[in-house]
Amino acid sequence: DTAVSQTPKYLVTQMGNDKSIKCEQNLGHDTMYWYKQDSKKFLKIMFSYNNKELIINETVPNRFSPKSPDKAHLNLHINSLELGDSAVYFCASSPTKRGGPSYEQYFGPGTRLTVT
Amino acid sequence: KNEVEQSPQNLTAQEGEFITINCSYSVGISALHWLQQHPGGGIVSLFMLSSGKKKHGRLIATINIQEKHSSLHITASHPRDSAVYICAVRLYGATNKLIFGTGTLLAVQP
Q1: A79: Cβ–Cβ under 8 A, 6 or more apart, which residues?
Q2: How far is A45 from chain B (nearest CA, A)?
Q3: Cβ of A9 under 8 Å from any chain B Cβ?
Q4: Is the distance from CB of B46 to CB of B59 less than 8 angstroms?
């Protein structure tokens, strides 16, 4: 059974387009995350939702908009795609509650976005 | 300067060798994570620790909170251990934000 799934796995699109990446977890976790991994394999947090509430919003262009329709889903919509948006985007989830103890995070397989 | 530093950046070992990867951080943390990313790209959580030492199979992770340092050890290394190993810290406070190190690329040769 897939714990954290993302779709699509690969996404190739042209500059200026709008695209979405979907993430679902069936672990019953409270918190979900979006991370960006650049070409040097460096991971950075973008957003985090706890029970559908946005709790982390890093310095990310407002072309990126996360949406959490329910606790099990966290989608990422990107408007007006730019070349610099090319990266691998990872979704993750954890049982961690806001201000509570830490738990391991479970990562999705990643979505490789290529903007041409 | 990154708040989380790993060393070495690249490591090549012979099968069977004992391997150590180091992580130092400069911020207050509530927990430290060790992650493994295989060549295929998937990321797996190996350990989450806030004190002391944890062991899982051939992997051992230690943390010294006073010295702000953690180590990941691999005993009897095997080619299948070849991957990028990433250290990440959870900042002390209300959020669940992780800050990542730049990773250590490990290649274990047969």
Answers
A1: A18, A63, A64, A65
A2: 7
A3: no
A4: yes
Task: At B79, list the tokens.
Answer: 């080619």
Closest by Cβ to B45, choosing from A40, A104, A110: A104
CB pair distance less than 8 Å for A102 and B44:
no
- Closest-CA residue to A92 (of A53, A44, A42): A44
Q: Is B44 on the interface with A (CB under 8 A)?
A: yes
A81 to chain B nearest CA, in Å?
A: 23
d(CA B29, CA A38): 24
How many Å lie between the alpha carbon of A6 and the closest alpha carbon of chain B?
Answer: 12
pLDDT digits (tens, 9 = 90+) for A65-80: 999 999 899 999 999 9
How many other C-beta atoms can be found within 10 angstroms of the C-beta atom of residue A10?
10
Cβ atoms of residues B90 and B31 within 8 Å: yes
- Cα–Cα distance measured from residue B46 to residue B44, given in angstroms and rounded to the nearest whole number: 6
* Per-residue pLDDT tens digits for B81-99: 999 999 999 987 757 788 9
Q: How does pLDDT run across B7-22, given as a tens digit for each residue? A: 999 999 999 999 999 9
User: What CA–CA distance (Å, rounded) separates A39 from A87?
Assistant: 6
DSSP A97: P
- Rounded to an integer, what distance in angstroms lies between the CA atom of residue B99 and that of residue B110? 33
